[in-house]
Structure formats: C-alpha cells, structure tokens
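Exercise 7b. Backbone tokens:
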C-alpha cells in the first residue's frame, strides 16, 4: 500500500463563461483566486485557480472556461459531487446566502451522519457543503462571506461509477481505507490526510455514461509532498499495470495523469512549488501569468481573453 498520497490536491472542472465562473467561485462561495493563467495544453483559454488564502493543496478548485462548450451530461465515470468543508452550525447561513443569490439545486441532506447542503454551480456543477467539526484550515478572510461560515477547503469528492470494484482497489492501493457504506455509497478515507481525505464511491449500474461539458469535473488530483513521493507512486502504479503520463511541469506543481478503472481521470500532483512560485502571496491571482512555453502569446492573449474581476 502506498503511503505518499495526502488527500485531494485539486479538482478541475470545465465552464462556459470565465466571468460568470469567477463571480460564482469568488463572490458566492468566497474562495480566493490564487492564479490567473492559461490552459497549458490549449493556451487560448484560461486556467483559473481558486483556493483558501494561501493556496493550500486540498482547497484548490480550478476551471477551464471554454466559451463554445456544450453543457455536460451527468452520469457514470465522473466526479458527481465536489464537497466543501464548512464549520459546524453554518449550513443555515449558507442555505440563505445561496437562495438569496438565486443558486439552484439547493437540497439539505444527511450522509454518514453529516449534515450537508447540495447546490448547483454556475454550469450546474454538482457541489455540496458539509459541516465539519474543527477543520484547522484557515479560510480566505477577505471574501464577502461571514468568517465563521467560510469554506475551509475540500471535504471530499463523490465518484459515480457503474461498478466500483476497480476504483476501490486502486484507492486502497493509494492508501485509502473503506470506512462505511450507506445507500449504495462506499466511503473511503485517509486518517492522516491534508483535510481533504475522503472519497465516496456511488455505484449506479444503470446511469448513462457522463458526457463531459460545462459543469463537469475534468479530473481530480491527489496530493503528494514532492517529486520523490510522486516518482515512487508512479513506479508502483506502473507495476500495477496503469498507463501513466511522464511527469509534466505545471509551474505550480508537477503532475502525472492516468485513467482510473471507473473512467475518472486521476492526477497525482506535488505540493511543491506552490502558487507563490511566480507572484507575491499578497497579490496571487491578479495578473495574467503565462508559462515559459506560452510567454510569446501574451500580447494576443491579453487582447482575446475576457476580462475578469480583480
Ligand atoms: Zn490538474
């Protein structure tokens, strides 16, 4: 069993409109934009990163806004719900806030003894807030959200699968242990996680396969401390027969990618070097940052990328 994985690092989704997405994640949810860059593999669109104040792995929600993209179709083989941790007693505040702002899909529910509130993101993204006792992660404190209710980071992600067997075995290899099962949902967790140590597996044999589009999660990334930990994980996964990319430099972390047995794209990302790699912590996410290989595109990109709020 691998011991290097620390929990979720980031979740990356697709969106239709950069401005609408930016307003929703910073304005409505109160996360901090910690990086404004482009999709390294398709530099004509943004890659926007949102997190707590210090861009801590386990709190990082990222978006590729593609203006022409069609809506995604929910189904199997994807992350169905991305779940954020909020303080105990704060769901009433959130229910009112989200309703006042016209957010759709609001639905209170209980899962594994926890109170949660489901809601839709700007493109119908499957989101939920769950009350967590004593989450030590510091929230972004400059947002328009009551500090005592602010999002602390990810609590979990819920994967929708036709058959969970292969994905469960992979997560157990990655250091997760099954905790409990309820209504067809298996919960796995890591005891010594970065705060985002829970993965739920929802088995839905009859669901259609998801079709990726606006509001879909593109991939889920798991955190490791550094390059050495990443290489050890890569080697072990290769020995288990997974097809894994070489290490790719994403400027703020180093990444490897592979398809999990249930169809969800997994990434393993390093905590190093982090979002203060190319700008001051005090000004994260304000200026357009370009990787070296796309620096020559700056003039065109500054003209063509939509303006988003400060
Ligand atoms: Zn990623």
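Sequence design result:
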């Amino acid at each position: 069993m691998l011991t290097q994985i620390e929990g979720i690092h980031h979740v990356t989704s697709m969106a239709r409109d950069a401005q609408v997405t930016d307003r929703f994640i910073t304005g409505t949810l109160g996360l901090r934009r910690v990086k404004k860059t482009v999709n390294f593999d398709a530099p004509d669109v943004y890659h926007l990163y949102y997190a707590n104040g210090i861009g801590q792995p386990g709190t990082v929600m990222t978006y590729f806004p593609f203006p022409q993209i069609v809506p995604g179709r929910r189904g199997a083989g994807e992350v169905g719900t991305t779940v954020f941790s909020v303080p105990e007693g704060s769901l009433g505040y959130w229910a009112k806030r989200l309703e006042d702002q016209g957010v759709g899909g609001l639905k209170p529910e209980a899962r594994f003894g926890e109170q949660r509130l489901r809601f839709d993101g700007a493109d119908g993204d499957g989101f939920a807030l769950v009350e967590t006792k004593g989450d030590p992660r510091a929230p972004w404190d400059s947002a328009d959200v009551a500090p005592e209710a602010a999002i602390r980071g990810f609590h979990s992600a819920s994967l929708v699968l036709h058959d969970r067997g292969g994905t469960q075995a992979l997560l157990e290899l990655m250091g997760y242990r099954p905790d409990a099962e309820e209504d067809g949902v298996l919960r796995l967790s890591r005891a010594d996680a970065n705060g985002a140590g829970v993965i739920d597996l929802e088995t839905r044999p009859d669901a259609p396969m998801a079709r990726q589009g606006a509001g879909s999660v593109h991939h889920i990334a798991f955190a490791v401390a550094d390059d050495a930990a990443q290489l050890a994980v890569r080697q072990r996964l290769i020995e288990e027969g997974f097809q894994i990319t070489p290490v790719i430099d994403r400027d703020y972390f180093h990444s490897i990618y592979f398809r999990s047995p249930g169809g969800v794209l997994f990434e393993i990302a390093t905590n190093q070097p982090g979002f203060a790699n190319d700008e001051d912590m005090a000004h994260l996410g304000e200026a357009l940052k370009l990787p070296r290989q796309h620096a020559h595109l700056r003039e065109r990109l500054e003209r063509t990328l939509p303006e988003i709020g400060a």
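Instructor comment: The first helix runs from residue 18 to 28. The longest strand covers residues 42-51.
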